Automatic annotation (TrEMBL), chains A, B:
L-aspartate binds at E171, R215, T367, R371. This is Aspartate--tRNA ligase. GO terms for biological process: aspartyl-tRNA aminoacylation. It catalyses: tRNA(Asp) + L-aspartate + ATP = L-aspartyl-tRNA(Asp) + AMP + diphosphate. Residues 193-196 are annotated as: Aspartate. Pfam families: tRNA-synt_2, tRNA_anti-codon. InterPro entries: Aa-tRNA-synt_II, aa-tRNA-synth_II, aa-tRNA-synth_II/BPL/LPL, Asp-tRNA_synthase_2, Asp/Asn-tRNA-synth_IIb, NA-bd_OB-fold, NA-bd_OB_tRNA. It comes from Schumannella soli. Belongs to the class-II aminoacyl-tRNA synthetase family. Type 2 subfamily. It comes from the Bacteria. Its EC number is 6.1.1.12.
């Protein structure tokens, strides 16, 4: 391993010999002295080389020639003398170059610039990811996920890996990707819904999964992707969807606490966002009341089915922030008509479900519910939705050999990160975005 | 949430009122007294009900009727009186039933029994998973993965989620699943190889991913699946594949230490396995020497290409165990002819690569290597393997705009767990196995 000091660590490193390694961000090739700004995954540092091939007694200077030839983006490892120097704007220190090892030369012309369009940047995503903001996004996501998993583990959940290849549809025939599978065909899972529910009759009690899901959704909005990371959890012995919300909010508090601690300042510096770690309970408002509030605010939801559209989500989120001081709101008790057949309905009123959407900073990030575990009711509800119970046999079997009451939620990872950082599109936060027109790189 | 005491916790719970919840493992419906063995995700407990509808002064006994009607596998929640009693074989305690809430009734006849074939058990995997051994496997895997991720996080690796939908092949055209993708087609990633390498020119430094990978491999061996969980890591600024092995062994030590601490005794009890946490360095033996050792042991490898077959892997593993006391061995410096084009070759000898396979308890679990990062060499090696560089353009671009030396490995999660527990097939350890003939449930 190249023994190197990360740029972030230089400030706490005493003056003296160091090795740093990264890529060339800029070169200032001046007459008497040359400067390189070298960036690694933790920051940028100024490297300096006073030329010896100029002035009154010029001598050969192979390093000067090396530096003059450097192209932006070239990776190199530099050994030199670290010196704290308050006059240096970049971190108050610089490294006087002793030797330069070029590890990987970059083509002279970088194909993108800071002001390139998002589409162009996605074409060259591996260069776009070099921007410090992109590195921070990746670290924020890493910290967030690890905090979620640690919360689950501390609370005795089992991690599962559900299959992404299925013989039949998971939720609906629409928006399914079809896969050639030997002599037959398969489908890509739109969600782990059925399989995470399976863990309940399997007696696992409490499970979680963070994994890709696939939707052949031809839309081009800022919040849709054909492949996305779904954060899922499902657990037994709940009394209602309120128990699901309780787990959900604790989990988010754990995730956001970790992000705030580790990256709070960096997030504010990079994105101008000062986010607060929420406290439980998050406000809970039934959908019917949300509709009233939004209508009273002067907005008529243009959807015929009574579901919230993005503008209504934005408005209720704003209202909750103003009236309850919360960035999160659970919109509960969705109409049965706009929920899948497996959501359990209220005992007294079959027209509404024991379900919720979680809205965060103006957009929906998650859907949760208690599941219907009584197989006869489940079959009735499937039929009512126009589904053929015969095609659901493998799923219905889960409920025929004993099953506890259970529920859970699925949450879009990229949406959470996008909304946390106040970014305009999930394309900014996904490592390699996949959309109807984008399969590369 | 149903407030319940997990069976595991009963031993440390004082005598008195408790609620337990789980499924019926057995019912002994005797004349004067009824017994239920109730299992939850942590263990089994005996519930007892002395009948009141028999004897000299019989009174109505609705609970007795409830118990008589119970089917195996039914989920229920029981409130009663916990009492320590040394005479009770099952854990030295029992719960005298106060009331029974049936949550989910099971069909009378369970479709599988303990001695059902693996194929039949996989048909009813959600019932098979109720076996305590299966629950333990899921917990061992959970602990192992979390320890890996924690090691990565502690060592400042970034978690990435690479896309599983690709426009072109990741390694070879063979064994690729094709997906209908709007007006065009896509392929399922066989590994995150190209995309995790992309994190290096992206300046991420060190990355990891645990995610599904897909191979249209028609074989039916005990170690192959068409969908499997791949444990991947990739990092910059290595000097050779030895640096990759150093990371790999530290990671495995972290994972196995956690498993030993949390589940060591349970593993021995359930599987008769007493595994040792390995120490670094694991033995490293070049492939050429492994061939000699295996040949000297009297086994002629039947493969024409000089690669190890499963029997040779078993034999070298046995030899290393006998001669070095290690369950692990890195077989290094594979012939260039049997390695992919992107493995870096030795400076002095282009016929061998800076690569390794890791063999554990008799079978290969992982392949690692330093990657070729010089684009001209990479193109030459691709051509030599009969690949068309034009089809690899998006990948070759990663190396044209600056890239540090790097390497990494991919490891099959199910294989590690199978070999750790001494199980005969990965089908026993995968939540829902996918093979050429199996897409359900």
């Amino acid at each position: 391993m190249t023994e190197r000091t990360l740029v972030q660590k230089l400030a706490s490193t005493p003056d003296g010999p160091v090795r740093v390694a990264g890529w060339v961000e800029t070169v200032r090739d001046q007459k008497k002295v040359q400067f390189i700004v070298l960036r690694d995954e933790t920051g940028a540092v100024q490297l300096v080389h006073p030329r010896t091939d100029v002035g009154e007694n010029p001598v050969d200077d192979p390093i000067a020639a090396q530096i003059s030839a450097l192209t932006h983006g070239t990776f190199l490892s530099v050994e030199g003398e670290l010196k704290a120097d308050e006059r240096v704007k970049l971190g108050g220190l610089e490294v006087k170059i002793g030797s330069v090892d070029v590890a990987g030369v970059a083509f002279p012309e970088p194909p993108i610039a800071d002001d390139s369009s998002i589409d162009k940047r996605l074409d060259w995503r591996f260069l776009d990811l070099r921007r410090p903001e992109q590195n921070l996004i990746a670290r924020v996501q890493t910290t967030f996920e690890h905090a979620l998993r640690t919360w689950w583990i501390d609370n005795d959940f089992i991690e599962i890996h559900t299959p992404k290849l299925m013989a039949s549809a998971s939720e609906s025939r629409a928006e399914l990707f079809e896969v050639g599978y030997f002599e037959t065909k398969a489908y890509l899972a739109q969600s782990p819904q059925f399989f995470k529910q399976m863990a309940q009759p399997a007696g696992f009690g409490k499970v979680f999964e963070i994994a890709p899901a696939f939707r052949a959704d031809p839309s081009f909005t800022s919040r849709h992707a054909t492949e996305f990371i779904s954060v899922d959890s499902e657990f037994s012995w709940i009394d209602s969807h309120d128990d699901v919300m309780k787990v959900h909010e604790q989990l988010l508090i754990a995730g956001l606490t970790a992000v705030k601690e580790k990256h709070g300042e960096a997030i504010t510096a990079a994105f101008g966002v000062e986010f607060e770690v929420p406290t439980a309970p998050f406000p809970r408002i039934p959908l019917a009341e949300v509709r009233r509030i939004v209508a009273e605010g002067g907005y008529e939801i243009p959807r015929a089915d009574g579901d919230l559209d993005p503008e209504a989500e934005r408005r209720i989120s704003e209202w909750v922030k103003a009236n309850h001081g919360s960035d999160f709101v659970f919109v509960t008790d969705y109409d049965s008509s706009i929920r899948p057949f497996y959501h359990q309905r209220h005992e007294g009123d079959g027209s509404i479900t024991k379900s919720y959407d979680l809205i965060y900073n103006g957009a929906e990030i998650s859907t949760g519910a208690q599941r219907e575990h009584r197989v006869d009711v489940l079959i009735e509800q499937a039929k009512e939705k126009g589904l053929d119970p015969e095609e659901l046999e493998f799923y219905l079997d889960f409920f025929r050999h004993g099953v506890p009451p259970h529920g859970g939620f699925g949450m879009g990872l990229a949406r959470v990160i996008m909304l946390l950082l106040g970014l305009p599109s999930i394309r900014e936060v996904i490592y390699l975005f996949r959309g109807p027109n984008r399969l590369e790189p």
